[in-house]
Structures are given as C-alpha cells and as structure tokens.
Amino acid sequence: MTNQEVVEAAVNDSCLSLFQDYALPLRRTHVQELPADSQLLYCGVVGYSGEQMRGTLLLATSREPLGRTSPTTDASLREWIAELSNQLLGRIKNKLLARGVTLHLSTPIVLRGQHLAPLSRTELIPFAFVCDGGQVCVWFDAEISAGVDLNTVVETTGLIEEGTSTLF
Amino acid sequence: MSKKILVVDDSVTVRQQVGMALQQAGYTVLEAGDGVEGLQVLDKGGVSMVICDVNMPRMSGLDMLENLRRDPRHAALPVVMLTTEGHPGLVDRAKKAGAKGWIVKPFKAELMIAAVGKLLGA
Questions:
Q1: Prediction ipTM score
Q2: CATH architecture observed for domain A3-32+49-144
Q3: What is the DSSP track for B25-80?
Q4: Which of B12, B13, B17, B65 to mutate to test the interface with A (most CBs of A within 10 A)?
Q5: Does B104 touch chain A (CB under 8 A)?
Q6: A94, A110, A165, best to mutate vs chain B, most B CBs in 10 Å
Q7: Residues of chain A with pLDDT under 70
Q8: Strand B101-104 vs strand B79-83: parallel, antiparallel, or unpaired?
Q9: Which domain, by its residues, includes B70?
Q10: What is the pTM assigned to this prediction?
C-alpha cells in the first residue's frame, strides 16, 4: 500500500466505526453522488502535527447525522460537532500509531455555513458518506514528511482502544 | 449524602453525557471546563473522585492531575482519565501521576459506572 492508501483506510474506517458506535451506520459514496442541495451546514476543524505528519481534519455534516448521534437531547450542535471531530481524529491518530506515527491534536473549532469546503494546498477529495436523511464529509489534509513509510507496522503494546475502560 | 464526582472536560456535551450517567447512578456531579477550573473546584473540598479529559485548553488533564497530586489534600483522590487518546506514552504518564483508570471515548455508561463504583468502594 502507498502512504496515501494507508491514510485513506485509516480515515475511512475511523469514520465508519465512530458513527457506528453512536448507532448511525454510514455508507461510503462518491462526493459526486451527494445530493446537489446537500446541506453540509456544520463543520468541525481540528489541526494536528507530529514529526511524521501534519495537517488538518475537517468533518462536515448535515443536521440529521449530528442530531441522531448526539448523546444528550439538549446539547448544542456546535458543541457536538466539535467533540465528534475530536473523537474522529483521535481514532485516526490511534490507527496511525500502529504505523509508527505520533500526532498531537489541537483544540477543535467550528464553522457554520452552506457548501463548506477547504481550500487546500493540493486537490483534496473528501470522503463522502450518506445515512438515512443526511450526509457526512471528511477532508483529511495530510503532509507526510520525506522518508516516512506508513507500511511499517510497529508494536503498540499498551494502546487502549475506543470504548474500553482500564483500571490500574 | 451522595458522593460528589467532578467531571472535567472542555466539551459541554461530554460533561452532560457523563453527568447524566453518574446522576442516574446516584452520584452528585460537579463540572469544570478545563484543568484550571477543575483545580478551583477541588479547592472548595468535598469531591470524592475526578473524571477528567486529557486535551483541554489552558490546562490539560494530565497537567491538572500532576498539579493536584502536589497538594496533600488530594494525594489519594481517585482520578480516571476519559479521553479520545489511547497512546501508551500518555497512559504511562497518567499512571505515574497516580491516575486510577483510563477510558477511551466514546464511553459505555455501564463500564464507566462500574469503574466508578469499584474505585469508590460502592
């Protein structure tokens, strides 16, 4: 696999599993197949950095996936997309750790608007997903340092997986 | 009187989610939005346990944990980290600072309540 393919698999799998954990199955699609009037209104943005990689994750969704995954009825959608973005990047970070990549995350910021999309350094095609009545898009801008090979699987003894609880 | 648990997280949604689960289990919940606020709440006394995020503005959860351990009043206070992070290096740092547990989001309420009950001897 190329570095790009390793990163794409990590992003795709992390997004599917995160929404599945909140009982909202997503289906991967092509961005061209999203409805023309797609209402990607809410966008969480989290930057990350590390010796091997740096970049930004953007998670944009329509209202439906946010409302359906929110664990509390009175949570603001702004708060929730910030937290979801953080949890998504956390998952990607944990997957890339197994490839020897250590990332540091910034605090999420939230944007609201119509037809939100990043203006990246290079062409960036979003990971597009659909669910009943809604859409989710993820842009993962990654600048990988020269010489880094993400095909190298490293030992990750002690990594605690999502949804698990460990007492010391 | 129910035991007081301090929930420290910069996400209001997570604080509400954790708070609801703890209240349903019979605990009283106090909240703080970052490590600085968390230490201020602890200073007022009466807290039996802390559930704390790692990545937060102003003061991270690990910095808060290391700070509170320097205060003899909180030397034995049970602290559990609740975070998106699972990095062994961070887990080791928390262990060395005396954290009693580590939960990776999204958390399962029943697992968290079981962990809290075990640590508080319920």
A1: 0.81
A2: 3-Layer(aba) Sandwich (3.40)
A3: TT-EEEEESSHHHHHHHHHT--EEEEEE-SS-SSS-HHHHHHHHHTSGGGTT--EE
A4: B13
A5: yes
A6: A165
A7: 74-75, 120-121
A8: parallel
A9: 4-120
A10: 0.88
